[in-house]
Structure formats: structure tokens, C-alpha cells
# Entry
Amino acid sequence: MSAPSSTLTTTAGSTGAGRYHDAERALWTRYGLAPAERFIELTEPRARLRVLDIGFGEPVLFVHGLLGPDAFAPLVRELRDFRCLVLDRPGWGLSTRVDYANSRHGSGLADLLNGVLVGLGVDRAHVVGASVGTLWALRLAEAHPERVDRVVLIGAGPLLDELRVPAWLRVMASPLGALISRNTSLEALRSILRQGGHTESLDDGRIPSELLAWRLAASRDTEAMRSERDMLRDSLISWTTGRWRAGALFAAPELGAIPQHTLYLHASADPAGPIDMARRVTELLPNGELDIVDGHSHEPWLEDPRGVATRVTSFLTRAAAAKARP
# Structure
């Protein structure tokens, strides 16, 4: 069930939620957008999830990575012909947490996203997943193909169980990760972005102060980082063995059974994962396409929002053209 929508407003609140809301509104205002927020009540898993609703046209559900939902703002501004539905994953922003330890990761992710679409009254949508959100997007396409038109994957994500766990993810899932997730300084945030390949965009101002302020508010005033660590530790990674948990990622035959046309946008030197991984994923998908973005960043739309939006729009509008053919 979906609660009535309202437009983001300044709360000037002294509470964590109020400070987060204000930082978020400033970011969207920076891009000339005023999202409506809608809350979805789920019973299985029990959660109250928030979606930011922007624009008109064919619906596109956005599933974010560890950088967070509102980092999509520069990309959403350029996608003028779509209704963009930006989900706060559990624990992020104003969404409540879920217990990842007591749920099956693959089917649980799919059912959660399906519940969001049902709550929004959306029968069918395109899905854009970034970073770890790529796993969520493909799980929805796999389990509920009737809900998904086309899929866009952006940035290296944990998809194939044949890949090794990156060292930094293993650290985040370890007890040390609890300490790291509490570091909410601006310098720590800038360091994370630099590790993601965003050095030039930080130095030249393409990543604006409003985005940094919002991301700091997410760390300080919400349960986002604690929730992300729980997800990594409880459902994706065994930090004691350094391996993916059984069934957390896709086996090759599972990818081979996903029918949707899928575009993988991968930066040429994404520090989060090799381009060979993206090539392997698109080879396994029956209708997969690999589009290599020149650059080094994990979230390439932060460097070139218009260029990435052009690629996404071209791919998604092909679906409309195919439907129009007699």
C-alpha cells in the first residue's frame, strides 16, 4: 500500500531525520527538481520504504549502490522523458531497515522491489541499478519478469559468484567495518569518492557541495551505513572465509535465463571491478549489451550526467519503438 505523496519541504528540524531532509532538499534544488515522496508499507519483509517520484512518462525504478539514492539527482535531471522513481533502499534515507540475516538474499530482494512497484501502482517499469544495485535490479528481472521492461546496469557490481570478493568489501563486512562506517568526516567522504575514481570531478566542482552535504547527512543522521554493513555481513559476504555467501550472487545459468534486454554501462577503468567482468555478464545474458564509458569513475554519471543520460535514453526508447511496430 502506498501512502499519499508530498513534495520535499524544508523542515528546519533539529532531529536526524529533519537534518537529513533539509540536506536532501538542498541537493535536489541544486538540480532544479522538486521530488514528491511516497511511502510504501510492506508486510513481507515488514518495512516502510520511501520513493522519490520525479517527472512524467514511462516509469523507471532506480536502485542505488553504497553512495546512496540521491546521488542519482544529476542523472535524473537529464532524463526528462521518464517518470523516475528513486528508491531509498532499506535503512537509507527515510526507509526503515530490514533483517537481512533472516531472509534469502536473492528472492528477498526481488520480492521487496516487486512490493514497491505494487505499492506504487506500477504494473511494469524499466529498472536502473548502480553498483550493488545491479544485483537488486537483475534479481527483480529474474523473479518477476512480468514487472520489468528493460534493465540498465551502471558501474561494477557484485553479480557473478565466480568473482573474488574485493578486499574493501571484506573489510566492511568485518568487525573493523563497524568502526569505518562511523567515520563521518568530510575528508573520509572525499577519500571514498577518490577511491571510486572521482578525483577530477571533486577537484573541478562537478560533484557539488550540496551532494557532499547530503551524503554526510546520510551517514550522520540516518542508519544508512549500519544497514549497508548489515547487508554485506549478513547476506552477501562471509568475512571469516573471504567468500561470497552461497546463493548470494548469480550462477551463470541464472543469468542465462533472464530474458530482458539489458544494457551494462561500465567505465573503462572502473576501480570497483574489471571490465572483463562486465563483458562476461553481458555474454551470459541472452539480450545483454555492453557500453563502455571512457573514464575511471564508479558512478560515471557524476562526471558526465548528460552523456550517460543520452545512452540510457537511447536504450530505453528502443523499447517504445519496438512496441510501436506492427
